[in-house]
Write a structure and sequence with these properties.
globular; 7-stranded mixed β-sheet; 12 helices; alpha+beta; 6-stranded mixed β-sheet
């Protein structure tokens, strides 16, 4: 039987297609997409001009943080990384806030060590940061903080239970009906989902913890065992339904994952990556369970601010964040001049924004002529027992 000539030609060019894909993947980190966005800043309502250069997921994330609504968005030509990082400059007009989303190794190549300069309005943030929960044992509910006692009681009152499985078909089902719906319903276009293939590649060394209530699996967690720690790799809620979360499904995931990991002999559980903004809901929820921040990821958000713009100051005051300086993680909290002497407000912010694992929580006062460090908080509270 004579072979199809078109099929033969396509087979012949496959190596070329593979080579082109490899070249594109090699070049991709060196070219950044470039957007300009304008709208009303979320907290102040003042007009804000935002420039973002990097990946589309990061652009969606910052647009959500910065704007009540985006009134105008424009994508420009792609920029080479050298254009963006050399030479280092302050925020160029017409932006009040410029964000560069760049690989860490390229920042180090073109600008040197990752080092923020707050006085110059330049902050280097990890785009994600890893955290872990220390497991001293499943403490009695009476010893837990009130917020966790409430969660634990909710889990018990609503009759949640759990089981462990390695059945391959259930991993597929977990991805389609729990992980992906929960991520997309929670974060929309800001979501950065793991692909099905990436998740299935983890399956041979993973266990699936399924949380059930009234005979129905309503939440799940992929847990990977490492020699020194457990890793909560991916979690989800059935159909992404908020009603399950409200009933305590996520609290059950955290509670049972900690208990199970402790029973295996682990002393820590890796809770994966979180966004670097200290008001982030996921990060704050993990903190309730005793999260300790450990390592930043391999990408940076490099922030430049035009402090003469009131809208940029409004963004900063609403969004405290983690930043890197001298090889360490620090927290940045921004105050208006009339808040500088408000001790009660600063105490509330210290309680909320300090995390074990950061070097200092720095309070900055914002004025039109610059950023001034008011004080640095260095206390290291003990991790919550779970």
């Amino acid at each position: 039987m004579e072979r199809n000539w078109l099929h033969e030609r396509l087979r012949a060019i496959t190596p070329l297609r593979i080579a082109v894909r490899r070249v594109r993947s090699t070049i991709a980190p060196y070219r950044l997409r470039d957007w300009s966005l304008r709208g009303a800043e979320r907290s102040s309502g003042l007009p804000l001009a935002l420039g973002f250069r990097g990946q589309i997921g990061g652009k969606h994330y910052f647009a959500h943080l910065a704007f009540e609504s985006v009134e105008r968005e424009r994508e420009h030509r792609r920029r080479w990384i050298q254009e963006v990082l050399l030479p280092a400059k302050r925020t160029p007009a017409p932006f009040d806030l410029l964000v560069l989303d760049v690989p860490r190794f390229l920042y180090q190549r073109y600008r040197g060590p990752v080092h923020s300069r707050p006085e110059a309005g330049l902050f280097c943030m990890p785009s994600w940061v890893r955290g872990e929960i220390v497991l001293p044992g499943a403490a009695a509910a009476a010893r837990l903080p009130e917020t966790l006692r409430t969660d634990v009681k909710l889990v018990e009152r609503n009759g949640f239970d759990w089981r462990i499985t390695r059945e391959p078909a259930l991993f597929e089902w977990f991805y389609e009906h729990m992980y992906l719906p929960y991520l997309l319903r929670s974060h929309g276009v800001r979501a950065v989902p793991t692909t099905r293939q990436e998740m299935l590649e983890q399956q041979p060394r993973a266990e699936l913890m399924l949380i059930h209530r009234n005979g129905v699996d309503v939440a799940g967690l992929m847990l990977i065992r490492h020699p020194t720690h457990a890793h909560a790799w991916a979690l989800g809620v059935l159909d992404g339904e908020h009603a399950h979360v409200k009933a305590g499904a996520l609290a059950a995931v955290y509670r049972f994952a900690c208990q199970y990991s402790w029973s295996l002999g682990y002393r820590t559980i890796d809770m994966g990556m979180s966004r670097p903004f200290l008001n982030d809901g996921v990060l704050q929820y993990k903190k309730k369970w005793g999260l300790r921040l450990t390592t930043p990821n391999d990408r940076l958000y490099v922030l430049h601010f035009e402090l003469r713009a009131a809208a940029a100051r409004g963004f900063l005051q609403r969004n405290p964040f983690l930043y890197e300086k001298d090889g360490r993680l620090h927290g940045a909290v921004f105050l208006a001049p009339d808040e500088a002497n408000d001790q009660e407000a600063k105490a509330r912010l210290r309680k909320k924004c300090f995390f074990p694992g950061i070097e200092t929580l720095d309070f900055f006062v914002l004025t039109s002529d610059g950023i001034h460090c008011l004080e640095s908080y260095t206390a290291r509270p003990e991790a919550t027992r779970v």
